[in-house]
Write a structure and sequence with these properties.
6-stranded antiparallel beta sheet; 3% helix; elongated
C-alpha cells in the first residue's frame, strides 16, 4: 500500500496514510474518528531513538489543538541505520475533515538531540459516506 504523505528530515523518512473509521464515528454527535499509519525509516548512518512527539491537529473549522508526550503508542523505538518502525493511531475530530502535522524528538548515540518533521497529512470523510450521514 502506498503512503500519500511523505517527508524527509535529518536522515529520516516519514510516510503516512490515513483512513476514516465509519464504525467508530457518530456524526449525529459530531464525532468523527480517523486512523493513521506512520512508517518511520532511518535513511542515514547514525542510530537514534525516538523519545517524544508533538502534534498540531486542526479541525475543519480551523481550530488547532496540540498534543505532546513521550514516545509513540507507549514505545520509544530505536533505529539502526536502514531500520524502520511502523505504528497506527487515531485522531477524533468534531468535523468531517482536518489535518495534522508535527515532529518527533530524537536522540542519537552521541547524546545529540534533533527533530524529524512530519508532512502535513489530511483527514476527510469519503464521499461514499456523506450520503449515509
Amino acid at each position: 500500500m502506498t503512503y500519500p504523505y511523505v517527508s524527509i528530515s535529518n536522515n529520516f523518512k516519514i510516510e503516512i496514510k490515513t483512513d476514516f473509521d465509519f464504525d467508530q464515528s457518530n456524526p449525529l454527535q459530531y464525532q468523527y474518528l480517523f486512523r493513521y499509519t506512520i512508517l518511520i525509516t532511518n535513511t542515514g548512518n547514525v542510530p537514534a531513538q525516538l523519545v517524544s512527539r508533538k502534534w498540531n491537529i486542526k479541525d475543519g473549522k480551523g481550530v488547532v489543538r496540540y498534543v505532546e508526550g513521550p514516545g509513540v503508542i507507549g514505545q520509544t523505538p530505536y533505529f539502526e541505520p536502514g531500520k524502520s518502525f511502523e505504528y497506527q493511531s487515531f485522531c477524533p475530530l468534531p468535523t468531517m475533515e482536518g489535518e495534522m502535522w508535527g515532529y518527533f524528538n530524537m536522540v542519537d548515540d552521541r547524546g545529540q538531540t534533533f527533530k524529524i518533521d512530519t508532512p502535513v497529512f489530511r483527514f476527510h470523510v469519503p464521499k461514499e459516506y456523506i450520503d449515509i450521514y
